[in-house]
Amino acid sequence: MNLQSVRTPARDPREPVSHALDPLRVGDTEIGVSLTVRLAEDGAWRGRLTFVDAGEPHAVRETAEIFCGDTEDELWHGVQRLREHHFRDLFRSLT
Q1: Which residue has the higher pLDDT, 3 or 94?
Q2: In the chain, where are the structural domains located?
Q3: Which residues 6+ apart lie within 8 Å of 60 measured at CB?
């Protein structure tokens, strides 16, 4: 009996992919945070943050594509260098 290999198709890096980050606490409210990354036509990796208030799930706030890197890893390093107060300030700037 022949075994068939299971292969998942490679994703198109130009298609945006969202990654959940640690939630953010603003006062008594928990805010869900995700990073959406994609490969732009110019070859740079670009990313934006999305904030979802647990109390208001329809109140979604997004930044512009403020993260950029030559590689996906470089973009992630830029995001990981930010501290919680930076995320909080970005959220507040959108409210």
Answers
A1: 94
A2: 17-94
A3: 50, 51, 52
Predicted confidence (pLDDT) per residue in 29-79, tens digit: 899 999 999 999 999 999 999 999 877 868 899 999 999 999 999 999 999
Q: Would you say the C-alpha torsion 37, 40, 46, 48 has a positive or negative sign?
A: negative
User: pTM above the 0.85 mark?
Assistant: no
Q: Can you spell out the DSSP letters for 34-52?
A: EEEEEE-TTS-EEEEEEEE
Position 75: which residue type?
L
Q: Distance between CA atoms of 38 and 85, rounded to whole angstroms?
A: 25
d(CA 60, CA 58): 6
Q: Which of 33, 40, 35 is nearest to 15 (CA)?
A: 40
